[in-house]
Amino acid sequence: MLLVNNATSEISNVSGGRPYKDSALAIDSASAITHTHSGLKYAANQRIVASLTGPITHVSGGLPFTSDGRLCVGVATSFDYVSGSIPFTAAGRIAVTLAGVLPELITSLFGASEQGAIYIPMPVVLGTQALFQDSAGTLPVTADGDPDGLTD
């Protein structure tokens, strides 16, 4: 798996022409594209712009991209195949592991031995829609930021 740091904060260094935050490749799935370098789109914060959910519309240089040029990545616990030393999911996305997100959250919530739980909802579970924007369950959650009116 490719270790990435998905955020909007500044990068810590550049190595081999690629941005890094600590030891993870620095990507940004939220910011607008501001410039292109060596065939990749970047945000103003110098991170590679990426998509975690957008459809793959084309492949260039062996890498999958969305129609607006975002690099297609997929958070995964394993990969299905390797091409050019890059791990890919079965859907053709670059297989990535997010650096620091969950451990940082757990530490911030429970670092002083507080008791509690974390609930991380997923819109679709085992192929079945599980989150809806309305309490009647007629409008599915499809994107980050959609309201959660019903969890089935």
Please provide a written account of the structure.
The structure is a single chain. It is built from one helix and 17 strands. With 152 residues, the chain is mainly beta. The chain has a five-stranded parallel barrel with strand order 1-4-7-10-13. It has a two-stranded antiparallel sheet with strand order 5-6. Strands 8-9 form a two-stranded antiparallel sheet. A hairpin with a 2-residue loop joins β2 and β3.
Draw up the topology in text.
Layout: E1 2-6, E2 13-15, E3 18-21, E4 24-28, E5 35-37, E6 40-42, E7 48-51, E8 58-60, E9 63-65, E10 71-75, E11 81-83, E12 86-88, E13 94-98, H1 101-110, E14 124-125, E15 128-129, E16 131-132, E17 150-151
Parallel strand pairs: 1-4, 1-13, 4-7, 7-10, 10-13
Antiparallel strand pairs: 2-3, 3-4, 5-6, 8-9, 11-12, 14-15, 16-17
